[in-house]
Write a structure and sequence with these properties.
- By secondary structure, chain A is α/β, with parallel strands linked by helices.
- Helices cover about 40% and strands about 15% of the residues of chain A.
- In chain A, helix 20 (about 470-480) links the parallel strand 13 (about 460-465) and strand 14 (about 485-490).
- In chain A, helix 6 packs parallel to helix 7 (about 165-175).
- Chain A starts with 13 loop residues before the first helix and ends with a helix.
- Chains A and B meet through helix 7, helix 9, helix 14, helix 16 and helix 17 of A and helix 7, helix 9, helix 14, helix 17 and helix 18 of B.
């Protein structure tokens, strides 16, 4: 019997309370059966959070009917390892059938995975790496606000993970953005993986939330009336609220109750049967689950998650000439402001959110802030949280752009971007000051590894435009393209390339654009190094050596036709201000080997951590100036 | 005139105070001259932190004479962008000469870099990426305690960066470890890059530090007597202490004072000259600095930073046979406990610290904890802080080991490990549960990108042993080898390989070990997949195809002789449970292309995010079981 959704109710009738209590028993039985059938999982937290799960899924405007819509309430289970408990609660509300979940938990090929995934209706964020859930919640809340939807966001967490610094970052952003529709719930069972919370790492949970400006409410995490009442009251004083839900790990789990061992372990017999019987169940369901696990195929995903498709106008590209020289970061800034203005508060258009970590003067989002003030979100120096927030905001129906120095956007926040990718969040990440093109900030600020970082995931598109014209067009392409897209630009003012200024030129993902033809070899240049490579080609021509020059702006995607054509010249030189072993040159080299294309390849790039210096000096030191490139080519051909 | 070090003084004589005040003027003049000569840098913070710099370098047991020793006080400037101010303070105490610093700030080739680096004496940690300094301080303090040295650690920070979550993590570890010898100082000037702290991101600085259990003391950050007194009192009540130093950004900087613009910008004329004159200086020093910048070579590094060389016994390898089957993570755990016990509290031996983030039962450091209780450091779920702490502890004279799930150790904390590398910290990172060998936790927990992450840096050595015997030997090798070394192991129990059990076998970094000879092709297998590749080779032999099998345990280092030999067979198949584009196979493929070795190569690996499942199922799904590998080889040779 499916439980009714009690959206927004503060007080339960006797019938409602009894139904919830019955479901809590059944859900504990079901979750323990999943864990026992898989012989793996986390029963302790599943049992301690059970009333929290059932209350939140009952209270929220989130049902099997609207779970795949955009404008509704959101529920994030940050302690994703309690998955068996979550699935059991979702069964009670009719999101998924018990006959799927019980046999297929943690089974290979099944959607009922070890850590929760969005392919299960009712799950809004793939979690498992702790500390990210509150950030996701803030992202959902910001998206809903931008979409003018008055929804609530519920974030459930464990207590052991309260120590993750990213949570503090998200707390402050929630307060600064006045998100009183975000309600956090902490399963305060005082036990974590290897012992009690007190033994492992003392943390004054109440004090740290209060210090960041949240309303803190304590309640009995096993009492439905207390939980519903607290949920209904949350946010009424204008602040985001956290409920510290006092619970017992393994509650109602007999010998498992209060024992850290069962944080992450199936109980085995006789505990399994004893617990099921004490909850009024029949332990025989385990045998049935095991039989189905063995003899029936794993169920297909309940839904396919695809990135949100934005409805926006992308306007007309700005044309840059060499009289109106610009930096690529500036061209991004102008383009995003232009598109922002075109769509700002226009009915039927997707909101465009731009996130900032106190760098707008450097990452050039100041103009956007001016023209779209309500869609510019200042987040302070809190990159881990912002990476996740921008991901969740994208998943919940906005064009979500975070412009940031390369080292912070993809090095500092790599795991957050990896989880955005896994979540198919579809956020837009703009990395500025990449490569050696940082100015004199030195090695800690030189993001010479962004191609490698993006290559190390599966779903990201990476755009590295060469000049302001291509940057403008790539920016508009990025804003309109579903999925996770990263745009990487440097700091220097660079020459414009006439081909990209032409109204006929459209940014085409994956295409290497041949800008010069030659038969003695080919240079593939990444982004703004194209201009320099073109100069090298002219110097080489003076020496009687004629080379093709290809501009690569999508280094993760190989333009097979261009590569094959270039290989016919016998010599491929790659040029980039990126780690020489993990960038575009490495990608092309590997492809030459895999396809046995036969051409010789030489990679120019960054071979050690750099020093302070202006870009041109740094490039010269690594042989990436026009003279150095030409010299390398001559030596290579010898 | 160099200032005297006033180590530990609480009260200043008039002469001392006057000397400090004179130095503060001179240091402001010098730092502004550096910024103006470079036409780049951060004068605002340099001026507001100046009395803090001079007080801490005066108070600490850190002098030009002992700056390169291990056992002394440590000073970390976390807001490393205030570098011009730091260098100016170091000039006053005689660490570096003014004639080097003034002309060479942010100059290409110079050690006087944009963000501070350890090559300058008096600088203990390369910073610039905010939020990491307190973690470094905790690491230094733990190392000094382990070495039985009663030193102090001073961490200076800005106020805008107080929002970084990693600081909260480090605060809790400091309290949990009772590090009352850590003294933090916040430059509380209330201005950050793009506006006031209040505008950018409200943060209740006092409350968040108090909530985590620190003693908070407010003082006038421009008053030497208040600063020395506060430094002398800090820690007396047994708690770590933070001084909130009330300052003015750009203090004594005339028009620059209190203006956010000068956070990161040279003032230009007439401001430069006006400020210098108002401080009693002669603006002509700028012309001299510019002349020297143009006409003299950049100074050499003042000192070379090399990783600490540990003095430990590494004992006798444990021998594993197939009767005594083990997992590689278990073999690591036994080896580190064995070496720990051998050296624990033995005079003259380097302390071995093992850090844990609530995962010791999974990462197998429980035995070490038992035998070396004082050297096991429980840090809770706070990976960003721990990554930096373990780095700094290594730099300050310990063997520092952090054992952690792969996704948290190198994905979540990538930027911290990158900065450990830049710092030449020499920490030891043990990644467990790597590749598909995680158990049923699913995609968020599968670290299929660690080879790519390590390859994306420059200094890391990566060891991926194949069996428990090789793991044991690689662990002992890691513990004794200076520099950043990462050991990566899976979760499953695996077969032992007789060759590695032999007393004659020694772990040799960079060597690919040929375990089987064949003329029809070669398989290079990473780590524990070697056993599976050997089975494939036997299956292939039954079909009349004889292949060599190489065990690769150092994927970042190419065994050129082995590769050349293998290429002579014409066919190279690589096998790993890692992202197929960023692992060992990609490295070998690129090398084949670069050296034009002519052999055909095919890479087997992980081609998308995985699912929940036991390792063997997941491997099979990606064709990484013995049958799949054999089949791939046959198709490849067609």
């Amino acid at each position: 019997m499916a439980l009714k959704n009690l959206h927004g109710k503060a007080t339960l009738t006797d019938d409602e309370l009894n139904a919830l209590k019955a479901s809590a028993k059944q859900a504990r039985i079901n979750s323990l059966t999943m864990v026992q059938a898989a012989n793996s999982g986390h029963p302790g937290g599943a049992f301690s959070s059970m009333e929290m799960f059932l209350s939140v899924y009952g209270f929220a405007n989130l049902t099997p009917a609207n779970a795949s819509e955009i404008d509704r309430d959101y529920v994030i289970i940050s302690h994703g390892h309690t998955s068996a408990g979550v699935y059991a609660a979702l069964i009670e509300y009719g999101f998924i059938p018990a006959e799927d979940a019980l046999p297929n938990f943690r089974r290979f090929g099944s959607t009922i995975q070890g850590h929760i995934v969005r392919e299960v209706p009712g799950i809004d964020w793939d979690t498992g790496n702790l500390g990210q859930g509150l950030s996701a919640g803030v992202g959902f809340a910001l998206a809903q606000r931008a979409r003018n939807h008055d929804g609530k966001v519920f974030v459930l967490m464990g207590d052991g993970g309260q120590t993750k610094g990213q949570i503090a970052e998200a707390r402050r952003i929630a307060v600064s953005q006045k998100l009183n529709n975000v309600i956090a719930l902490i399963d305060w069972n005082k036990i974590q993986l290897s012992g009690t919370v007190e033994e492992i790492m003392h943390c004054n949970i109440r004090e740290i939330w209060e210090a960041d400006g949240w309303e803190v409410v304590e309640c009995d995490g096993h009492s439905f009336p207390e939980l519903f009442k607290a949920l209904a009251n949350a946010g009424k004083n204008g602040k985001p609220t956290v409920l510290m839900c006092k619970t017992v790990m393994g509650k109602d789990g007999g010998e498992m109750a209060g024992v850290p061992t069962y944080h992450g372990k199936a109980p085995g017999e006789p505990i399994y049967s004893n617990v099921v019987k004490s909850l009024g169940g029949d332990p025989e369901i385990l045998a049935k689950a095991l039989d189905a696990r063995k003899n029936t195929p794993a169920p297909k995903p309940y839904r396919e998650i695809t990135p949100f498709e934005a409805e926006i106008e992308t306007g007309t590209p700005i044309v840059y000439t060499n009289e109106k020289k610009s930096d690529n970061r500036g061209a991004f800034g102008k383009a995003v402001a232009d598109v922002g203005k075109l769509n700002y508060k226009v009915a039927g258009k997707t909101p465009i959110l731009v996130f900032d970590c106190d760098l707008s003067p450097s990452v050039m989002t100041g103009e956007f802030k001016k023209v779209c003030p309500d869609e510019f979100i200042q987040c302070g120096i809190q990159e881990h949280a912002v990476a996740t927030i921008s991901g969740a905001a994208a998943a919940a129906g906005t064009v979500s752009v975070w412009a940031e120095f390369g080292v912070f956007g993809i090095d500092e926040a790599y795991n957050q971007q990896r989880l955005n990718d896994i979540n198919k969040a579809g956020n837009k990440l703009v990395l500025t000051h990449v490569g050696l093109d940082v100015g004199e900030d030195g090695e800690t600020h030189q993001c010479i590894d962004y191609v490698g970082q993006a290559r190390n995931m599966f779903g990201w598109k990476l755009l590295v435009p060469a000049d302001p014209n291509q940057t403008d067009k790539a920016t508009r392409y990025m804003l309109k393209t579903p999925g996770c897209v990263c745009l990487a630009v440097g700091r220097s003012k660079v020459d414009s390339i006439p081909e990209f200024a032409s109204p006929d030129y459209k940014f085409e993902y994956g295409k290497a654009v041949k800008l010069r033809d030659g038969k003695d070899g080919a240079i593939f240049a990444l982004g703004y190094l194209t201009q320099i490579a073109l100069k090298s080609a002219e110097e080489l021509a003076k020496q009687g050596v004629n080379v093709s020059v290809y501009c690569v702006s999508s280094p993760l995607e190989i333009d097979e036709a261009a590569l094959k054509e270039a290989c016919a010249t016998g010599y491929i030189l790659t040029v980039e201000d990126h780690h020489v072993n993990t960038g575009m040159g490495a990608i092309l080299g590997l492809e030459i080997a895999r396809r046995n294309l036969g051409a010789k390849i030489k990679n120019l790039g960054v071979e050690k951590y750099g020093l302070s210096g202006v870009s041109s000096e740094l490039r010269k030191a690594f042989g990436l100036d026009s003279e150095g490139i030409a010299k390398s080519f001559i030596e290579f051909r010898k």
